[in-house]
Amino acid sequence: MGNCCRSPHEEPNDGPLTVSRSQFQLNYVIGKGAFGKVWKALHTKSNTEFAVKVMSKAKILAKRSIDDVLNEEKILSTLHSPTIVSMHYAFSDSQFLYLVLDLMLGGDLRFYLAQKKAISEKVVKFWICCIIRSLEYIHGMNIIHRDLKPENLLFDSNGYLHLSDFGTAINILDQNANHIEGTIGYISPEMISYEQQTIATDYYSLGIILYELITGERPYEGANRREISLKMKEEIKLKESDLPKGWSSDILDLVNKLIQKNPRNRLGYHGANEVKKHPWFSDIDWVKLENGALKAPYIPKATSANFRKNLEISYNRDVNNESFIRCKTLLKDEITQSLFADYYYNEDIPNSTDDSRVEYDEPVSRKG
């Protein structure tokens, strides 16, 4: 493996398979997260549009989240499916990590829900089927997502939903009972109770999303995990009076089976097939859905209007944060930079992790 910290006097490797920031034209912001922003970008070498997640190394260090960002790149390097938001490149410079992903211009499901528009049962069913399609794929690859929520479900231009953000995902075979990940309001009872998580964990979150699509709210609301945990002691069920007029009663049974507190009793514990066989999905051609041949009942306009207007506003709340400033200083040290050494992926070279391709724009000191 190459040296991650090139001498400031050394010319960057500019071979045909090198990936660097200079090859991407960042156009406008389409999302943001804990470590930075997501940009609609043009890869000038291939003239292809992508979404580029730009993450501050200093923020990652300050939040002690190196494992999460490295984990996302590692997991995405093993996943290649149209059911998810796939990775094409991953690389870094002295200050930032760059994750190059499929561009989904339809916006996320949360943005749609925020519009408070009426949603038909037909539309909801198609969306849930898309999510099941994604879960079936990643579970087949032994991956649990653990942060399934509307913000992590993105529309493509054809109206299909794709699963994104694998920072908290984990291999099914790993011990995970001590890990509480995910988002308050969507995390499963077993996660809150520090119990081993299985694929049923993701199906619980699916049930919460379906409940929210029907009623406009989640069954367990609270300001923190403790409040939600207390509310979960009383199991809430979807009632017929909660259904919009004219909706099938089969959906009641589906939701209540998905949000079972005991994962062994939860629909989906034995895999996607038992979910797909539920009566509510009796009119779905799963083969056509898998092939992208079903016409989506809702097709978003592929414009910047699908993204939150305030995303362009610069948010540098961390610049005066003592921890952030200290971590930014640490980035001048070779040892600190080496923590990000494995952050590299090039779809033209599968399983690539050649950190010698890192292009630094500032000198990095060498100690030792």
From TrEMBL:
Binding site for ATP: 53
Keyword Magnesium assigned: no
Domain Protein kinase per the UniProt entry, residue ranges: 24-281
UniProt cross-references to InterPro entries, sorted A to Z: AGC-kinase_C (IPR000961), Kinase-like_dom_sf (IPR011009), Prot_kinase_dom (IPR000719), Protein_kinase_ATP_BS (IPR017441), Ser/Thr_kinase_AS (IPR008271)
Molecular functions per Gene Ontology: ATP binding; protein serine/threonine kinase activity
One Pfam family recorded for the sequence: Pkinase
Record's keyword annotation contains RNA-binding: no
Domain of life assignment: Eukaryota
Keywords: ATP-binding, Kinase, Nucleotide-binding, Serine/threonine-protein kinase, Transferase
Domain AGC-kinase C-terminal: 282-355
Family label: Belongs to the protein kinase superfamily.
Subunit structure: Monomer.
Record protein name field: Uncharacterized protein
Taxonomic source organism: Blepharisma stoltei
Taxonomic path: Eukaryota, Sar, Alveolata, Ciliophora, Postciliodesmatophora
